[in-house]
Every structure is written in C-alpha cells, then in structure tokens.
Amino acid sequence: MEKNMKRSKEKKSKKKIWLWIVGSLLTIFLIFIGTAYYTIQKTMNKINTPLLETTGDEKEQKIVTKKDPFSVLMLGVDERKNDSGRSDTMIVITVNPEKHTMKMLSIPRDTRTEIIGHNSVDKINHAYAFGGVPMAVKTVEHFLDIPIDYYVFINMEGFLQIIDTIGGVTIDNDMDLTYNSYHYPKGEITLDGDKALIFSRIRYEDPRGDFGRQIRQRQIIEAVLKKASSTSSILLKATDMLDVVGDNVRMNFTMKDLIQLQSIYKKMDGKIDQLSFKEGNGKRIDNIWYFMPEETELEQIKSELKASLQ
C-alpha cells in the first residue's frame, strides 16, 4: 500500500516537473515571439515611408491584393560621405497575381532621359540626387510610361553591413576582376561586407561596364536574402539584421502588404521574366557619356510592362 502511494506521488511529482518544463519552454517561446513581433513592428514603423509627390502631397497608397497587378521600383543607392547619392541600381518589377507572372527590368544608370520635376535631360540615376525617391519615381514613370505603385529604397553601403552580421556570403563570380588591392577570381567566392561593397561598385574594370555591375549587385542581394532567410540566421541574428534593415531600407509597403506579397510569390514558384536593354548604345553629348536606348526596343519593353499591368 505504501509502495503504491510512493509510486503515485512520484508520478505526480514527475508530471509536475514535465508540466513546469513544458510551461517554461512555452513561456520562453511566447516571450521570443512577442519580442520578435515587437522588433519587427518597430522596424516596419521605421522603414515604412509613404511616397510623397514632388508637390509635397502624399501619393494615393495602393493595397496589395491577390487580383490587382502592381509595380515596384527598387532603388539601390550608393550614399557616401558628403554626397547626396545616386541610384546605381534601378530595377522595375511588375507583378500580375492572377496570371502568376512577374517581370523585372534593370534600367542602365546612364540612360539619357527627361528628369521630371527638374526641367532637364540627364542620366536617369541623377533623378534621385536632384529630388530623392519622389523624383526618381516620377522620372521612371515618364520613361517607361507606366505607373509606379511601390518603391523600395536600399542604401547599399549600409545594407551590406548585414553581410558581416550573417557571417559572409558565397556567390558564383562569372569573371576574374581586380580593383586596387582587391582581387575576385572567377568561380565560387566568399565575401565579407567590405569586399562585397567594392565588388558591387566595380565598373570600369569590367568590359560590360554598368551591365556587369548590375549583375554583381543582384547576385549579392540574392545571396544576402537567401542566407538571411535561413532558420539559424534568423534565430541568432534577427535583432542585428533588423537593426541594419531599419537603418538602411525605406519602402511604402505595409506589414499587411508584405504578408500578401509572400503569399503571391509562393504561387509564382520564383519565376521571373527578365527584361533588358540589348540594342542601345553609348553616346557622348557635351563630353558626357550616356546610354541611349534603341527606340523600337524601348517601345517593346513598354508594351510588355503595360500588358503585365493590364
């Protein structure tokens, strides 16, 4: 009888211990989730910036849905000390949720076009230097004759700090390149933040010029996103990564928009139709080098983007 009572007490004691362990783990997990949510929300409040017109009025905000097509302008800006910065990377993305299609166009930074709101004809990347994101958006809208619904601004120099936070990235380099004391052999290479920054800026040492640099910048961004999205990186470095993102990224997507975007992107299986300027050529005007798009090709690109946006 006493033995049975002892066993019963031991079972109850073990049950209490397991309940305490499970309860403690659950509490810790909930605290982590709560902290993560708070940190994410804090970061979103920091980076979410409505797009203002050049007149100072706020542009009507679109909401991402599973039906309506929309467009995004991605600006990778190289902001250095004592410099307002120029948009080295200008990528336009159109998304059609119903057709499950996505088109991506990289605009050469030296493209000669009218700068809307500045009363000048200049390199398209100067639009950001003259009037920030609003002028860059208006200029791209005019150049491609499509509306731009969203923008994502990335300060490349600051953003690449995230590479050190996640312990470097590995990419497949398609060309042997040397810049001062930096050497990047062809093949698989691992980059820290400093090396990645130089790698993303190399231009004249690459016979492809700005086109080659655009390829490398896309490679770096893709490698960062791939590694940063791994479970171990998120758990160990979430706060540090969010701090870097909060300091160097601005967009007019809301948290709800981003959740909807993730759902839309999954259904597309990552399929992206890459558009590019292949027929244009360089030309010097007043001793300044410009990229001049070929008119027929430009009209074809406009048509494809318009069709994507219906």
Kindly describe this structure.
The chain is an alpha+beta fold and 310 residues long. The protein contains nine helices and 14 strands. It has helices at residues 2-47, 126-144, 156-159, 161-165, 193-201, 210-228, 231-248, 255-267, 295-309; strands spanning 70-78, 86-96, 101-106, 112-115, 120-123, 150-155, 169-173, 177-179, 182-184, 187-191, 249-251, 273-275, 281-285, 288-292. It has a six-stranded mixed sheet with strand order 11-6-1-2-3-12. β13 and β14 form a beta hairpin. α1 (2-47) runs parallel beside α7 and α5 packs antiparallel against α6. The longest helix has 46 residues, at 2-47. The model has no long low-confidence stretch (mean pLDDT 81).
Task: Please give a quick description of this structure.
The chain is α+β, with helices and mostly antiparallel strands and 310 residues long. The chain has helices at 2-47, 126-144, 156-159, 161-165, 193-201, 210-228, 231-248, 255-267, 295-309; strands at 70-78, 86-96, 101-106, 112-115, 120-123, 150-155, 169-173, 177-179, 182-184, 187-191, 249-251, 273-275, 281-285, 288-292.
Biggest sheet features: 6 strands, mixed
Q: Order of strands across the biggest sheet?
A: 11-6-1-2-3-12
Oligomer: single chain
Helix content range of the residues, please?
A: 40-55%
Radius of gyration, taken over Cα atoms and rounded to an integer in Å: 24 Å
Terminal CA distance? 82 Å
What does the overall shape look like? globular
Mean pLDDT: 81
